[in-house]
Amino acid sequence: MRVTMARQALVLLIVVSSLGAACASTRTTGKGPNVPRPFPGAPSPALPDVPATAGAPSIATTPALVGTLPAIVTTALTLRGMPYRNGGSQPSDGFDCSGLVQWVFAQHGTVLPRDVRQQFDVGEKIDADELKPGDLVFFETVSKGASHVGIAIGGGEFVHAPSSRGVVRIEKLSTSYWSKRWVGARRLGG
Q: Which of 8, 142, 159, 168 is the most exposed place for a label (fewest CB within 10 A)?
């Protein structure tokens, strides 16, 4: 009886902490910084193509444009369809938003902090009309200030790991949900 109640309490605690933390969380293992594994240069996992959100064709699904995208964006797009997991920071676990961004950039030799707010402090601040594929885009979702991050892919779209609908996917920056929550953008490496 005691074991069953303890398990139920543990499950409840995990569910509540996952819901409350959302994407702005920082995963700590107690073994140093959370650097995604493998780092860097591991091949991106082969995943089935997951279509972009409904509406006009996505820049990421237009064959003539895919070959011209920066390697960072191409890597991020291979992860479409990966499950959302709070605290997830590698393909075997699934991803939360900052884990996705950290892992993708790590594959190209760029070390980023694990937390959204810390990622917001990295790189050059840029305006929305200056966005290029590979720039980081930030939104205010679960708490004041930057609490969600994605990677601009061009054409007014970005790829990210949202907790709703549970998979890495492409969205338009112009949708009312995202445009109302825009915080800013950062460019890494010039």
A: 8
Taken in order of first residue, the domains within the chain and their CATH numbers are 57-190 (3.90.1720.10)
- Crossing angle of helices 97-106 and 71-78, in 10° steps, is 130
**Of 108, 107, 103, which Cα lies nearest the Cα of 92?**
103
Q: Which of 27, 80, 85, 160 is catalytic?
A: 160
Catalytic option among 80, 85, 148, 186? 148
What would the pLDDT profile of 22-62 be if each residue is shown by its tens digit? 465 444 333 333 333 333 333 333 333 334 444 444 545 44
Instruction: Give the active site residue among 97, 101, 116, 153.
Output: 97
The answer to whether residue 23 is catalytic is no
Q: How far apart are CA 125 and CA 186, in angstroms?
A: 5
pLDDT digits (tens, 9 = 90+) for 77-122: 999 999 999 999 999 989 999 999 999 999 999 999 999 999 999 9
